[in-house]
Amino acid sequence: MNQGIGHSPFDLPVVFQLGSIPITKPVVITWGLMAVLALGSRLLTTRLRVRAGRAQTALELLVTTIEGQLGEVIPDGGRSYLPLLGTMFLFLVVANVSGIVPGVQAPTAHLETPAALAVVVFLSVQVAGFRRHGFLGYVKEFARPSIFLLPLNLLSEITRTFSLMVRLFGNVMSGEFIIAIVLGLAGLIVPLPLMGLELLTGLIQAYIFTTLAAVFIAAAVGTASPAPENGKERTT
Amino acid sequence: MTIEQISIIGAVVAVSFGAIGPALAEGRAVAAAMEAIARQPESAPSLSRTLFVGLAMIETMAIYCLVVALLILFANPFVHLH
To answer: Does ipTM surpass 0.90 in this model?
Structure first.
């Protein structure tokens, strides 16, 4: 939130150098968030019991909700993509909301973090497609419904990843930018409703990012060979 | 006009014209959702959830224009700020 009006959102403040690699502020914040998430998950899951306590019940509710949402999008086996997409969702929620902490800037408000996440989504879509259809089968998918659509299909693969990146970056960054501008114009209480809106936007964007990643994976996995219908026991 | 002045006008045009389409689209989406809720009030929760996500998707178009405007203002390849 400590972003001045004349301060470019594309600037990256370097915190320290690791050898010859400059470590920027978003990277440090990302490490902090990762540590918080990992430690929190570790603490919450060390003593799992059948008779769940309060924290465990909340955790189970969260995980089953995410799994249900993924299962709606990916018809067979939302479960197998739960580790990737669920982690991504949790990280995005924490990252988007972290901008509300004084002194912390949401790492997703810089172009690099959404870009890295979008590359992860892109690669996992390709890997999921290859694993389901095999190399030739997956390449053939791009030439459907006709061979003339091959360049368009390849292009859309790139552009939708790009728009995934710009959507997340733009929404989070614009929220912080607007708050900074309003804070510069008017004092203490005025930006509060905007900050509330920014919290909501962060949650919705995390949901959208995860849902779109699930949709892309479902599109790469689905269509050609219909999966066998034998319930949850499946080796994908 | 210098290149800086032209880029400021470009940024303004990008945001103002880029906001028109999403504004119309959001209006239509909200109107349709209102109508649907008026007809079936019991489906309001799922409708409003879908509406929020849809609005965020539509809003993305305006955000793209904002990103372009900020690129013009802060990361202009033809202007050397530093």
So the answer is: no
